[in-house]
Design brief:
alpha/beta, Rossmann fold, 6-stranded mixed beta sheet, 3-stranded antiparallel beta sheet, about 40% helix, globular
């Protein structure tokens, strides 16, 4: 296991457990009655099991695995959205997460209003956000749509707005979870350039993707998850190579 010197993210035996209903319930009334009578039965589901991970300042990590492997659960754990059932999670520095297209947005608000909302969530002042709102819109290429509710946006427009907000203020840790899978090629190229600039400036990156070329290009290291368990971690090329062998 890597040294914890200069570590910004440390997971030790991190485990996430969910309870899922073991019987089908057709309506809310039946659910409430069974819950009140303590007749509701649950099955334990371990989404992440005993994960050890040390990420040091400036490192770029690809998180890989098939659907349901626990990748998004681990990102939510690191972001503080989920608490570990067992083990510990330590994070040092300001995180800018893009783990779901709609995360942090209010669909009833306009792009401008959502920029202000996200700025507050990320800890920036109103004056700071007002000064930079135009630059954020310019990068997202959404000037013509800045005053309409974002519920009318496509998934690509959501991604452009979220990425522009998350990366504008150069966070200590950037988390990208599959959101780059949407959007046109020209904007992806622009996003990749910004990510490269952030990596050059020693931003720590956690990148969840099914794209082997993206993992190899952007990430020094990789962690492979399967059904919540760590299969392998190490140099990105080596780890993704073994992953490809398994599922080719």
């Amino acid at each position: 296991m890597p040294s914890e010197q200069d570590a910004v993210i440390v997971l030790k035996q991190a485990t996430v457990r969910y309870n899922k209903a073991s019987e089908k319930i057709d309506n809310v009334k039946e659910y409430v009655i069974k819950l009140a009578k303590r007749q509701l039965l649950f099955q334990e589901f371990i989404a992440l099991r005993d994960v050890d991970l040390t990420v040091r300042h400036g490192e770029s990590w690809g998180i890989i695995g098939r659907n349901g492997a626990g990748k998004s659960t681990m990102m939510k754990l690191i972001c503080g959205i989920l608490a570990p059932y067992k083990g510990t999670v330590s994070v040092q520095g300001r995180i800018a997460p893009m783990i779901e297209l709609s995360a942090g947005f209010d669909s009833r608000l306009t792009a401008k209003e959502n920029i202000m909302l996200n700025g507050a969530i990320l800890g920036h002042s109103r004056s700071e956000m007002r000064e930079n709102i135009q630059s954020i819109l310019d990068f997202a290429e959404l000037n013509d749509f800045s005053d309409i509710p974002i519920k009318n946006y496509s998934s690509g427009m959501y991604a452009r707005l979220g990425f522009s907000i998350a990366t504008f203020f150069k966070p200590d840790i950037l988390i990208l979870d599959e959101v780059m899978a949407v959007g046109d090629a020209a904007f992806k190229k622009k996003c990749n350039k910004r990510i490269d600039e952030m990596l050059d400036a020693q931003t720590t990156l956690l990148f969840v993707s099914h794209s082997g070329s993206s993992i190899r290009r952007m990430c020094q290291k990789a962690l492979w998850l399967d059904h919540g368990n760590v299969v392998m971690q190490g140099e990105s090329g080596e780890v993704y190579g073994e992953y490809e062998k398994m599922y080719s």
